[in-house]
Amino acid sequence: MHQALLVPEVILKIFAHVKQIKDPLYTSTPLYRQCLAALATTCKTFYEPAMDFLWADMNSLLPPLGCVTRLHPMIYPSAKKFWSRDIEPLSELERSQFLRHSGRVRSLYVSSDDDIHLLYFLPFDISVFPNLLSLSWVVVSSRHLHFFLSPTLRNCYIAIVQPELVQNSIGTRCAALEDLDIVTMGTMARAPHLSEAVRSCKALKRLQCPPLDSAAWKHLSTIPTLLDLSIHQESFSPSPPPKLDTHNLSFVTFLNVTTLRFCYAPIADIIAVMQHSEFPSLKEFEFITHRLPGAELLPVLRALSQCKACHTLENIAISDDDPEVEEPPGNSFSVVRELLCFTQLRSLRLFIHCSINLDNDLLLEVVSSWPQLRTLSLYDTRHLSPKVTFRGLFAALRRCPQLHALNIELDLVNIDIDPKAESFQHTSLITLGVHDCPAADDEAIARIIFAMLPNVRFASTWSRISQHHESLQASSNLQDGGAVTDTSEEA
């Protein structure tokens, strides 16, 4: 054996590479697992590191149960469904066989509790996988969750919250828990045990969960490590969650939270939380909902502008996925102007069913207020006649030299600029998306873009214009090539 293979760091690097091997088609056992198993039996030097990689990621309880002599022939070569239904729990003597490699497991996915009754030999306060780092619990009941709550656990996904979660005391048993993702599958909303479970966690960095009560919000504001907070109410929930008790909301500061998301959460809750909170480090805000008329969106934006994030917020994304929402005729809401106070904005994406009323003057005001802007997408689903012309577009681009993605309604009928009379070029813009608008002269538009936006890639809605643009590029390449050839011949 080469001396390099005796260096632990070299062995770990090699085995990590082996684990990345992709499987060929129709392989029952992943190829990387076959390779690691072969390496483990090669020599004593390879055994421990190979077994650590082999057992690191488990998608079920079958492999550790297969280490039990009595169960092995029932599981291999292929375990039948409900194979363990009438099987007696493991005995005290079989305990060491089951736990033989469980300390090597770092990531575990549990999608069924059919076999968990075999673990009844274990005391309540013992973790089956003592070094587990990541757990995905996709089981209806959390009654047996305590078997898998390791003190080393860092990431946890729980599919359905049950009252047993409080009894299992996830935050107490997993003091180092950093990432918690809880969903309720539409069965529960702001249940007391959900709030208690969240309040038991003291070291979270990221949390995604259904709407919370005021006690949980207050607790989260005291966690200095919390960076990413997402409130997600399932869109298919049969009934809305109980209203947030705003009388018990105290003014709190989420000192280090940089990302705040609300998905289908009650708008009244969002406004109340932001009105009673400060987010001095906030960089990203995302809001997704079903129905978002302008009259409801404006209070949300005003509350956002008042939560001490005007000089830190960099990314805003707001979308409404209900195509049936319609504003009353004549309604006009200053949605974009409510965001002008965020001076460090780099990305703004609005996909909403209320009139944005974007014109040349407003576009120029927008880009002048956000000198760091990289991405701007303003999608007005009402499909009103576009008011931004090419002259207004290029006036705005002059103020925003770093913009690389733009998606707006653009007037392609009234061409008010002559590219031959303009010397301006914007080389940073890569993506230009224009919604399905009629065009007066596809070739003229292609020439404008070719001359002034040389690096733009076209979206699918530009199919006819892009054909002319490709012809212009091809002609330009031929001319450049010809010039080079002539020079070489003269030389």
Strand count, sense and closure of the main sheet? 15 strands, parallel
Average pLDDT taken over every residue: 85
What are the low-pLDDT stretches, counting only 5+ consecutive residues below 50? 483-491
The coarse silhouette is globular
Content-based structural category = alpha/beta
What is the radius of gyration?
Answer: 30 Å
Number of helices: 16
Read across the widest sheet, the strand sequence of neighbours is 1-2-3-4-5-6-7-9-11-12-13-14-15-16-17
Bin the strand percentage.
5-15%
Quote the distance from N terminus to C terminus: 61 Å
- How many beta-strand runs? 17
Give the % helix. Answer: 25-40%
Polypeptide structure, described:
The chain has 491 residues and is of the alpha/beta class. The protein has a domain at 1-55. Helix content is 31%, strand content 14%. It contains 16 helices and 17 strands. It has helices spanning 8-19, 31-40, 44-55, 62-66, 72-75, 95-98, 164-168, 170-173, 192-199, 214-220, 267-275, 294-305, 360-369, 390-399, 442-452, 463-490; strands spanning 57-58, 107-110, 134-137, 155-158, 179-182, 206-209, 228-232, 252-253, 259-263, 277-278, 284-289, 315-320, 347-352, 375-380, 405-408, 431-434, 457-458. It has a 15-stranded parallel β-sheet with strand order 1-2-3-4-5-6-7-9-11-12-13-14-15-16-17. Strands 8-10 form a two-stranded parallel sheet. Helix 9 (192-199) links the parallel strand 5 and strand 6. The longest helix has 28 residues, at 463-490. 31% of the residues are buried.
